[in-house]
Design goal:
This protein is an alpha/beta fold. The chain has helices at residues 2-15, 75-85, 102-105, 114-117, 135-140, 146-163, 171-178, 217-227, 294-321, 329-336, 338-343, 346-349; strands at residues 28-38, 44-57, 60-72, 89-91, 97-101, 127-131, 185-193, 196-206, 209-215, 234-240, 249-267, 270-285, 354-365. Strands 1, 2, 3, 4, 5, 6, 7, 8 and 9 form a nine-stranded mixed β-sheet that branches. It has a four-stranded mixed β-sheet with strand order 10-11-12-13, covered by helices on one side. It is a lipid-anchor.
Length: 370
C-alpha cells in the first residue's frame, strides 16, 4: 500500500511540476502599435511601439514604451530584426492599432496583413488607419507618450465611427472586405495638425489599394446617409442668402431619421441607380431674427434639400473617380445578375454607372425660439 502511495505521489509531482509550454512576458516584446511605410528601394519600414512592464517591488509595476524599427522585404523578417534589438520575440496579442503610410497603402495592402491572419496570437480587433506621409513619424513623434498614443487614437477612431459613420474596420473585418467581389473599402485617413495626429477624412480603396482620393468627414456624413448606416443625427450647415455684400450667413440643422431608397436598374449591360434620400431635420441655429411661417419652413426645406443634393453629387463623383464601390452595387449585381457580372469588367463599368440622386428633407422644428 505504501509503495502505491509513493508511486502515486511521484506521478502527481510529474504532472503538477509546471506548464511545459509557458510563455513568459519577460521573453516577449508586447506591441501596442505598428507602423508600416515603404522606402525608395521598395522595402518595408516597420516600426513598433512596445510596452515594457518593469517590477518595482511590493506588487507595483512601471509601464514604459519604446520604439523599435527595421527595414525588410516582409513583416516576419522585420519582426526578427526588431527582436534582436529588444528583450524577446514580437507579441501581437496586445496590438490595438496599425498605421499604414500613404505610399505603401497605394499598393495592394493584403501582404501587410497575411502574417496577422496566420498568427494565432494576433489581436483581430486591432484598428487600421492610413496616415498622410510617414506612419513611422506619426508613431515616433511622441515616443514618450506612445503607450497613450495608440489608445487615444483607437478611442478617436471609435468615436468617429459612431458620430460620422466612419466604417468600423479592423484586422478581422478587412479580411472579408479584401476577399469580396469588388475588394473595395474605406479606412480612416489620419494626418498631423498642430503637432497632433487626428482624423482628416476617409481613404477610399479599390482592389485593396488606396486610390489617392479621400472624403472629408463632412462628406462621410453624406455617404453614411446614402449607405443607410446613420443611427445618430447629423449636424448640417446650409448657406442662407444674404443682402449684405461679402457676408455669409449659415444656418445649422440636425438631420435625422434618414431613409434611402436605392433602386438598381439593368438593361442589357447598362446599369442605372436611383437614389432617393428622405430625412427630417430640426433647426438648431438661424442667424436671421424673424418670425417663422409656413413660407419660412418651405424655404428652409428647399435650401436644405438643394444643398444636400449638391453634396451628394460631389460624393458620388468622388467614389466613382476612386473606383470605390462604397454603395455595394457589385454585391447586388453578383446576387441578382450573375450572368451580367461574369460578362462585364467591373473596373471599367462602375465609374460610368449613371446615378440619379434626389433629396427630400422636411424641417420639423425650429427650437423653442418661435
Amino acid at each position: 500500500m505504501s509503495r502505491l502511495r509513493v508511486l502515486f505521489l511521484i506521478v502527481t509531482m510529474i504532472f503538477l511540476s509546471g506548464c511545459w509550454d509557458q510563455q513568459l512576458l519577460r521573453d516577449k516584446l508586447m506591441i501596442s502599435g505598428v507602423s508600416i511605410d515603404q522606402n525608395e528601394e521598395g522595402k518595408l519600414i516597420v516600426g513598433v511601439s512596445s510596452i515594457d512592464v518593469t517590477g518595482k517591488g511590493g506588487g507595483q509595476f512601471e509601464i514604459n514604451s519604446r520604439i523599435f524599427t527595421a527595414n525588410s522585404g516582409n513583416l516576419v523578417r522585420a519582426g526578427e530584426l526588431m527582436s534582436y534589438q529588444g528583450t524577446g520575440s514580437i507579441e501581437l496579442s496586445k496590438t490595438s492599432l496599425l498605421l499604414i503610410g500613404e505610399q505603401v497603402a497605394s499598393h495592394d495592402i493584403y501582404p501587410l496583413f497575411d502574417v496577422h491572419y496566420r498568427n494565432v496570437n494576433t489581436n483581430m480587433g486591432a484598428r487600421v488607419a492610413v496616415v498622410k506621409g510617414s506612419a513611422l513619424q506619426a508613431l515616433t513623434k511622441n515616443a514618450k507618450q506612445a503607450k497613450k498614443l495608440t489608445g487615444s487614437l483607437v478611442r478617436l477612431i471609435t468615436m468617429e465611427e459612431r458620430k460620422k459613420g466612419l466604417p468600423a474596420e479592423n484586422v478581422r473585418s478587412l479580411l472579408t472586405e479584401m476577399t469580396g467581389p469588388e475588394q473595395d473599402f474605406i479606412l480612416p485617413y489620419m494626418e498631423q495638425s498642430g503637432g497632433k495626429l487626428q482624423i482628416g477624412g476617409a481613404a477610399l480603396f479599390h482592389n485593396r489599394a488606396y486610390s489617392g482620393i479621400k472624403l472629408t468627414m463632412n462628406q462621410m456624413d453624406v455617404l453614411s446617409m446614402l449607405q443607410g448606416k446613420r443611427t445618430q443625427g447629423i449636424t448640417y450647415d446650409i448657406q442662407l442668402p444674404s443682402r449684405e455684400t461679402g457676408t455669409i450667413r449659415m444656418a445649422s440643422l440636425v438631420v435625422k431619421d434618414t431613409h434611402i431608397d436605392k433602386n438598381i436598374h439593368v438593361s442589357g449591360k447598362r446599369i442605372t441607380v436611383d437614389l432617393h434620400l428622405r430625412a427630417q431635420a430640426d433647426l438648431v441655429e438661424y442667424p436671421n431674427l424673424i418670425h417663422f411661417t409656413d413660407t419660412t419652413y418651405a424655404e428652409l426645406r428647399r435650401l436644405t434639400s438643394e444643398q444636400l443634393l449638391e453634396d451628394i453629387k460631389k460624393v458620388i463623383t468622388a467614389i466613382q473617380k476612386a473606383n470605390c464601390d462604397a454603395l455595394d452595387l457589385a454585391e447586388h449585381i453578383v446576387a441578382f445578375y450573375p450572368g451580367l457580372w461574369s460578362s462585364i469588367k467591373w473596373d471599367t463599368v462602375y465609374p460610368n454607372i449613371q446615378m440619379n440622386p434626389s433629396v427630400d428633407v422636411k424641417v420639423e422644428s425650429n427650437g423653442v425660439l418661435k
